[in-house]
Amino acid sequence: MATDRSQQLTFWELGPQQVTVDFAGGRVVTDAGLLPLRLLDKQLGVLRTIAQRLPDPRAQKFVTHTREALLTQEVYQILAGYPDGNDAQQLRNDPLFQTLVDVPPDAEQPLASGSTLNRFHHAYTRRQAELPLAERPVLGEMDAALTQRLLILNDYLPELFINTRRTPPAFVILDVDPTERVGRPRPSSSSMWTPPMIRRMDNKC
Predict the structure, then answer these.
(1) Residue 175 located in a structural domain
(2) Four-CA torsion 89, 95, 96, 101, nearest 10 degrees
């Protein structure tokens, strides 16, 4: 229901100036702390490199949002506390997230919708949805795609570690012992302790 209200309030006059308030807050963001994180990400090329290595089963002639744009949008949504892909419905027009994905905040093209982001997250394509239900190997293909992505990320992590060092290490010790041993002696039984793994590094991982 429409109501009569003032669009601007004047509190007092301060010399030649008036102190006024209105209800036109403009486009305000609350997660600006993500900007320096995005700057570091660009310098290291983390998301750019990962996006280049991820497979893209989409029909490319219908693609609007690149792999890097989708990955960047999803990662920074999660960092901002919006882990649900459906949150993209509200955030796709947010000027901060558009800036993070390198889209001008005033652009008419919004970021990916929640459905597009969820399909990307689950490696799901429209071609799978068009198959009859009994012939739709969705779960198996999605699991295989997600496993493939994890393997790609695992292969990239040692490379990222080396790239952030002034001098590449000769080897890296991976301590896979799952138990807490801080301040306690190590048990003598070999069944209770797993020795660290040593991964030797050549010029490339």
Answers:
(1) no
(2) 80
